[in-house]
Amino acid sequence: MKILLLEDDYNYRQSIKEYLEDIGYEVDEASDGLEACNKIKDNTYHLLILDIKVPEISGHEVMKYAKRLNLQTPIMIMTSLIDIDDMAIGYDLGCNEYLKKPFNLAELKFRVNELMRKYYARDDKNLITIASVFNYNTVNKTITNGDKTINLSSRELDLLNYLLYKKGSFVTINELISELWDEEINSADIRMHVMKIRQKTADNFILSKRGLGYKLNV
Known about the structure:
Number of helices: 8
Structural class: alpha/beta
Strand order of the largest sheet: 2-1-3-4-5
CATH superfamily of the largest domain: Response regulator
Shape: elongated
Number of domains: 2
Distance between the termini: 25 Å
Number of strands: 11
CATH architecture of the largest domain: 3-Layer(aba) Sandwich
């Protein structure tokens, strides 16, 4: 599993990177917020570990950027800033875990392993298999295929969750429009969202039948 580590202190960053690699993780590193954003844009990660006070743009801005990309990747904040206002900002932005500096590497291992177990455990009762090879976690709203995470937009996730709610039955386009978006979009928009989900997953991820609509292949 792949982790992005944002930390501007070189020695501190290398120490954490080497430790995480020793316990089996692949680690990509960034020394400033802008570099982290570029790597998030170009790569898929299972966890983001972000320092807050870094050059270029802050860790909080990196979190905002990740959320604008509709990423569901869990985020751990690693910082010496622990007053209640800073913590509130982090959690409001979608932080899943706080780790106060300085910390013991054994604590880092525990917290990273726990996040990975919570979000990616194969025996999770909230994990649903779709089209034989894709696993959808209904808690964190992520789709994985092996070690690859598939990122969907908010409307694509809305569509997926409604089809999951109606699993076993075909759902008409009119029902999707009225139940999900209250006629804010039209049938062409629905078809576009289905097409994009299939492009990101597989052609048989969502099944369709003329006159009946769409059904999730679970």
